[in-house]
Amino acid sequence: MDKKHIFITGGTSGIGLSLAEAYLKEGHHVGICGRDLSKIPEYMKDQYPFMHAYELDITDRNKVNEIIINFSKGRLDLVIANAGIASFKGNEIPDFDNVFGVINTNVLGVMSTIEASLKVMLPNHHGHIVVMSSVAGEIGLPRVGQYSASKAAVTKYCEALAIDLKKYNITISTILPGFIDTPLTKVNTHYMPFLMSSEKATRLIKKSIDNKKIRYVFPLRMKCLVYVLSIMPRGMYRQLMRLVTPTLA
Length: 249
Fold this sequence. Notes:
With about 250 residues, the protein is an alpha/beta fold. The chain has one domain: NAD(P)-binding Rossmann-like Domain (Rossmann fold, 3-Layer(aba) Sandwich). It is built from nine helices and seven strands, in the order E-H-E-H-E-H-E-H-E-H-E-H-H-E-H-H. The chain has a seven-stranded parallel beta sheet, sandwiched between helices. Helix 2 links the parallel strand 2 and strand 3. It is globular, with a radius of gyration of 18 Å.
């Protein structure tokens, strides 16, 4: 099997780390990055010689470009833009420090990752970029509007890029999961319908990536629920959200 060069942002914990290990087990060269490399289990550092770990704040555009390009050494088969932060401030009045932090990481961080990836992929006429979005981007969730906005932005951006870059043999995929049991969601105090284990989510995500699905929304029940909410008359949607918002706080 041909060894691929794969880079995963936000790869030091959660789904990113699980995906990294799955690809490492297959013998691929995998680069991962995160703000805190101490999160990486010690056994992985010893067991996988093809793993390359980088300390990186994804909002640092120049550093993102430098690290991804240096890792690739001229070849980049797959990039998974997984780094992201959630909205922990569930207030009716926006906390704009949180708002700008979420947008900088979840939108501009993704765009910086795509920028660096294309610098390698375009000359090679080859590559696959996967962006981890969320079903939250399909609707405006009250009290976490910045999170919904960030995920909506990257979903629509990738939808456009999937069209623009097809002729260059570059695939752009967007993955929109529901609630997954990861360190990111463990801090949530609100109800999380259809919560899925990290192990199962990793298997489903990897399968969709291997099959180069352009858009993948899961689990099915959450996909159906969000679809209904997205096509609901907006006045009805707002009224419904006012009724359930106390459970979101």
